[in-house]
């Protein structure tokens, strides 16, 4: 159900978390379809290996790798500055990177680490790349969420608190923020040719998502993943369906799972709340006057 004949020749795609797991599979599949693919993650060694493997397997030599640490707003700004200066277009942005089980602490930017890695860094990345996406329209933004978003809660006065939320709660909050950000994106860019949709990878085998967990909880979680998880190759196909299928060209503001439209969080339809999220997020990541195309 995830198969598509869509091609991306002459198109440019960015995949965060593209050096391994789901992101790697998505990047490889995009490369098969002729896209120029930029894979981004924190580890330059893994990026080089992933780039070389994608080039070798697909025969597509137009694969780039760039370091991006979503836990650093400076790194995000450096990445977007370089991309805007060197890329003439951007047709697909796959916001796949995320983490579970990170330490309960603040980053150098004064933000909750999980919230920044899973949401604030991606918000800033997307916000700064939106002018290029709009200039390249039709273009697509694909955001990774999780089923945990349904139990998420967003309190803008406390979403960066340390010691307030459990590991699962803060992850749920970050994924809910991603989902509502996508809903607001779809409304703001409805008539611009830029689409924004979310996907839930469900439970996926052979990824690094459990690397930050320890002890018995990690072992139990790994056993569960091994039993019920779906292959990462299948999830990569789901992302590529959203990125390349011609039938998705004008679809925006939807949530997908197993390549089917799925029930979205009810807050995605509360425009006042998603607008509030947008404004609060801009403030948290300190959008400057020069960056603020939204004024």
TrEMBL record:
The keyword Oxidoreductase applies. The keyword Oxidoreductase applies. GO terms for molecular function: oxidoreductase activity. Pfam families: adh_short. Keywords: Oxidoreductase. It comes from the Eukaryota. This is Retinol dehydrogenase 13. It comes from Papilio machaon (Old World swallowtail butterfly).
């Amino acid at each position: 159900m995830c198969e598509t004949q869509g091609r991306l020749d002459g198109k440019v795609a960015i995949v965060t978390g593209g050096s391994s797991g789901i992101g790697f599979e998505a990047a490889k599949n995009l490369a098969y379809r002729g896209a120029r693919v930029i894979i981004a993650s924190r580890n330059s060694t893994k990026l080089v290996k992933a780039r070389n493997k994608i080039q070798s397997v697909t025969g597509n030599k137009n694969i780039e790798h760039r370091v991006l640490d979503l836990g650093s707003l400076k790194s995000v700004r450096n990445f977007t500055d370089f991309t805007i200066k060197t890329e003439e277009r951007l047709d697909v942005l796959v916001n796949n990177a995320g983490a579970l089980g990170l330490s309960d602490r603040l980053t150098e930017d004064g933000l909750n680490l999980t919230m920044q890695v899973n949401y604030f860094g991606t918000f800033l990345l997307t916000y700064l790349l939106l002018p290029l996406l709009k200039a390249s329209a039709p273009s697509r933004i694909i955001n990774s969420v999780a089923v945990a978003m349904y139990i998420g809660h967003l309190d803008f006065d406390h979403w960066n608190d340390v010691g307030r939320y459990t590991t699962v709660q803060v992850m749920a909050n970050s994924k809910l923020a991603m989902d509502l950000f996508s809903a607001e994106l779809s409304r703001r860019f409805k008539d611009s040719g830029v689409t924004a949709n979310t996907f839930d990878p469900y439970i996926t085998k052979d990824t690094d998502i459990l690397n930050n967990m320890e002890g018995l909880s990690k072992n139990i979680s790994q056993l569960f993943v091994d039993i019920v998880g779906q292959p990462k190759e299948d999830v990569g196909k789901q992302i590529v369906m959203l990125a390349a299928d011609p039938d998705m060209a004008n679809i925006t503001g939807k949530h997908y799972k197993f390549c089917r439209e799925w029930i979205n969080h009810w807050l995605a339809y509360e425009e006042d709340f998603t607008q509030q999220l947008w404004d609060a997020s801009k403030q948290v990541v300190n959008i400057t006057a020069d960056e603020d195309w939204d004024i």
